[in-house]
Amino acid sequence: MSELFGTYLRARRLELDARRGGYSIRKLAQRLRVHHSFLSRIERGEPARLCERKLVALARELGEDPDLILAMNGAVAEDVRRAILKRPALFSRLVRELRDAPDEDVRSDPQLRRERTRLAQRITDKAVRLRKALDELRVFRLAVDNGPAAVCMIGPDDTVTYVNRAFLALWGLASETDVLGLHRSVLWVDPEEVQHYYRKMKETGRSSLEARALRPDGTTFLARVAATASLDLDGRVIGGIASIVDVTRERALERGLASSNQWLRQFVEDMHDVLLMLDDQGRVVYVSPSLETVWSLEPQAVQGRPLADFALPGHAPLLLDQIARTLEGANTVGDHRLRHGDGTYPWVRLSLAPRRDEQGRVTGVQGVVTVLSGRVPTDDPSNRD
User: Fold this and answer.
1) How would you label 126-161 residue by residue, b for 16+ Cβ within 10 Å and e otherwise?
2) What pTM value is reported for the model?
3) Which listed residue, of 99, 198, 333, 384, carries a Cα 20 to 30 Å from 4's Cα?
4) Residue 144 CA to its chain's centroid (Å)
């Protein structure tokens, strides 16, 4: 059977399933007394053919005219079949209206000819729009089928009605028949946890969560799910569609990064040197907690103030010059005397580097302050203000 008929059959079946349920591929195949995989092949446009009796039964199940379904499968002339496909309901009505009319009346009635011409034009116009809609539907279907994210659709009875190839790969399934028609709870380690977010999706139209998914072989993975409610023509929720991504590795990397950050933070707090950051005006915007241990000053007493305020008066110009050269883009090292918490001015080595933004522009200074305890004795009178 043709790919066009397969696309039409699937779209009509999903429409009926969304409206009132009971039209999953398994249930429809059961009522037709054919295997569901055979019906699935027809929907995919693969070589498979139903006999006339089965086609008539299918038409009744879909609520369609049997003549239309037969025509779509080549039971009439090709040109007639194509004409009917363009606007089936109108052509069926036109043929039935003209069926018993005398040939002479049909040929000689000018008004009927004009109406027939207008009808044909409307049929042609609507056929173009239908064809465009079917093409767009096919493109969308191909994009979802072959997309990188796993996609799953849930019907009104909470069973799986559609999955794409990425979903099959993520769950380790060989075929969509392994999951279609199953209850959504079989996909999760803790179905009750997922049920909470499913109710939220029905109430608000969308929800997201991270939950542990369960594969048929018993293995699990952490899945990030973004779900959106599916609505019927009256706006009622009849199911949902979800995009699913495996974030197991991502979360493991985040935990490792958090552990590394904690180690680095502890290292900074325990080190004997003092780390600092200055803005482009030479004001302290950050100083490490070691300031209190090494320098007997609380970080709050330094932040927001120019670093030069803490220099021995005669050393302030040298300190300002080093900061200015660093702001111009140079890495600099200089020895200065800075005020200690006990009122002394010991020698320190200030190693500075430019701090840059994402565009590479210098926005401030960052560096390390190291106490040079051996350069000047702490009891030297010149070491006091």
Assistant:
1) ebeeeeeeeeeeeeeeeebeeeeebbbbbbbbebbb
2) 0.39
3) 99
4) 13
